[in-house]
């Protein structure tokens, strides 16, 4: 019986460790993201947008933007800071922007990721009047600015 108890404890330790280190999930501000997550801040500082990409971002004027990402995801660490820098540099006025971090299961408590059928992180969704216009998944095919504004 004692051996079984020890085995049970040993097998449950990884679950306890994972639960204690679960990634942040929920809405987050860019300020909190860049100050609390070093990799995001490093990529933000390292990225220099082109003049063309800054100009392209103006096509997002008045649009809604939803950014679904993982603080644990290397693609998110690379792409989300690019978006933040592009928005900062272009000063485009969006109707709204929501940054929603998801857990390893690609869900958040508010159900935003589920409502937008999140499959891969990051996913950038451009909307107008609640209607989805553009979805950029994981890694853009061109530059992030080109993909976010394609067809606008």
UniProtKB/TrEMBL annotation:
InterPro entries listed in its UniProt record: Thioredoxin-like_sf, Thioredoxin_domain
Source species, domain of life: Bacteria
CDD domains in alphabetical order: TRX_family (cd02947)
Keywords: Signal
Leader sequence residues: 1-19
Entry keyword Signal: yes
UniProt name for this protein: Thioredoxin domain-containing protein
């Amino acid at each position: 019986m004692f051996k079984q108890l020890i085995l049970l404890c040993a097998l449950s330790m990884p679950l306890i460790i994972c639960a204690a280190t679960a990634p942040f999930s929920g809405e987050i501000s860019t300020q909190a993201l860049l100050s609390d997550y070093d990799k995001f801040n490093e990529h933000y500082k390292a990225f220099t947008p082109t003049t063309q990409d800054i100009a392209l971002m103006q096509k997002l004027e008045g649009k809604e933007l939803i950014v679904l990402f993982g603080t644990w995801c290397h693609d998110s660490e690379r792409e989300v800071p690019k978006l933040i820098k592009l928005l900062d540099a272009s000063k485009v006025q969006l109707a709204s922007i929501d940054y929603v971090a998801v857990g390893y299961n690609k869900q958040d408590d508010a159900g935003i990721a589920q409502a937008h059928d999140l499959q891969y992180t990051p996913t950038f969704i451009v909307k107008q009047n609640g209607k989805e216009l553009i979805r950029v998944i994981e890694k853009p095919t061109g530059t992030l600015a080109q993909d976010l504004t394609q067809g606008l």
